[in-house]
Amino acid sequence: MAPYESDDSRSAEEADGRYSARRKAARYAVPVAVVGVAAATIGLVPALADSGDPDLPKITAQQLIDKIAQSDVQQLSGTVKISTDLGLPDLGGLTSGLTSGAAGGGSGSSADPSAKLTELASGTHTLRVAADGPDRQKVSLIESAAEYSLIHDGKDVWGYDSKSDEVFHGTAAQDGKKGEAPATPKDFADQALKSVDDTTSVTVDGTAQVAGRDAYKLVIKPKHASGTTVGAISIAVDSRTGLPLKFTLTPAGGGAAVVDAGFTRIDFAKPAAGTFDFTPPKGAKITEDKDAKAPRHSRASGAPQGGLAPGKGPFEGGEGMKVLGKGWNSVATFDTGAKGGIPSSSGKGDLNGFLGSLGDHVSGEFGKGTVFSTRLINALITDDGKVYVGTVTKDTLVKAADAGR
Fold first, then answer.
1. What is the mean pLDDT, run by run of 10 residues, along the chain of 405 residues?
2. Beta strands 244-251 and 200-210: pairing type?
3. 297 secondary structure, DSSP code
4. Residue 131: closest CA among 209, 90, 186
5. Which residues make Cβ contacts (< 8 Å) with residue 176, sequence separation at least 6?
6. Domain ranges in the chain?
7. Distance between CA atoms of residues 283 and 42, nearest Å
8. Is the pTM of this model over 0.85?
9. Which of 112, 119, 120, 123 has the alpha carbon at shortest distance from 96?
10. What is the CATH number of domain 43-302?
C-alpha cells in the first residue's frame, strides 16, 4: 500500500481515482441522479457513539492503514445506527419514489433491495447486521411496526418487506471474488482510502471507544479545502481486529455530519446458522430478478455490498463517464443525450418543470444549465444534456463544464 501522511507529515502517494469508469450515463433527471449517487455513496455505512478515550499504544497513520488492510473479520453480528443529513428538500415522498424507480431497474417490487436501500439517504435508521464468511450475510432495516430484510445465503439473495408482504429474489454475483461482510464500515473505509492521493492528508487523531471496543481514530481530509464540499472523513478502527467500527463524513461548510454511522453493538462470535435461512411467507408476492421490467446491470458492479443486492445503478447505460480534474475536486461528466435540460417552468405543472424550479440556474462558456445541490454532492445539467456531478461546489462544477465543453 502506498504511504500516507502520518503525524510526522509524510506525504501520500497517489492512489486509485475517486470515480469508477465502469459506471455509465443514464437518462435520469439530475435530482434523481444526485439522490442516487448520495445513496450509493452512503450505502450501508454503520454508525458509532464515542464514550471515552482509551489509553492505547502509539500508532502512525501508515501502521493503522496497514492494520485495516490486514483485517480479516469473517463472522460478526450487531446493531448499527445511521444518521444522514444531505440537506435534501422534503418532497413528500416524491424523491424516494423517483430514486426507487431509477435504482430498482423497473422491478416494481417494494422488496427490491436496490430501491429499498435508497431510504438510507436521509434521516436516522437502525440496522441489524450479521455475517458468516463471504457467502452468508444479513441486513435488516428496522422500521416502525415493520422490518425489511436482505439475506445473502450462497447463490441466493432474498429481500423481504414485511409491510407490503413482498419478496424479491435474485442471484448473488458469481465472479470468483471474495465477498465482504455486508453493512460494515470496512467496505466504505476501503473506498475512502482508495480516494487518497497527494492532495490528501491522513492522520491519527487520538482514540475512542465504540460499542464497547477500544479504537483508534483515522482522519482523512483534503489538504486544500477550496472547491470541495468534503470537510473530513473520520474512521474509528478497532484496536485489536483492525475492523473499522465507525464512519463519519463532515462537510466543508460546517454543521452536522452528512453521515454519522456506526456500530452501537458488535459481537465477533459465529452467528446462529438459522440467521440466514429464509422461506417466503405463504401468500407473499414474489418478484424474481429476471422478471424485472427493465434490463438489469451486472451485480458485480452495482451491488452496494460485494454483490449482495442486485440492482441498477443511477448512471448505468448510455455513454461512458469521464472524470475531469484531480483529487477532491474531481468531477464526473457524461452525456444523457437529452437536449433542452430541465426547464424552470413548463407552464403545465409537469415534473421536469417542478424539479427545474428547485435548482439554481447558471451560465458560462458551456452555455446554460441548472445546478442541483445537497450538502455533499452537487450536479449540473446543461441545456444540451450534459451532466457534471461531484463532491464539489457549484463554482467548481461550472468551471468543469467550461473546461469540458
1. 41 36 30 39 37 85 92 92 79 43 56 79 89 92 89 93 93 52 58 78 95 96 88 95 94 90 94 93 90 38 29 39 86 80 47 60 92 91 91 93 83
2. unpaired
3. -
4. 186
5. none
6. 43-302, 322-404
7. 34
8. no
9. 119
10. 2.50.20.10
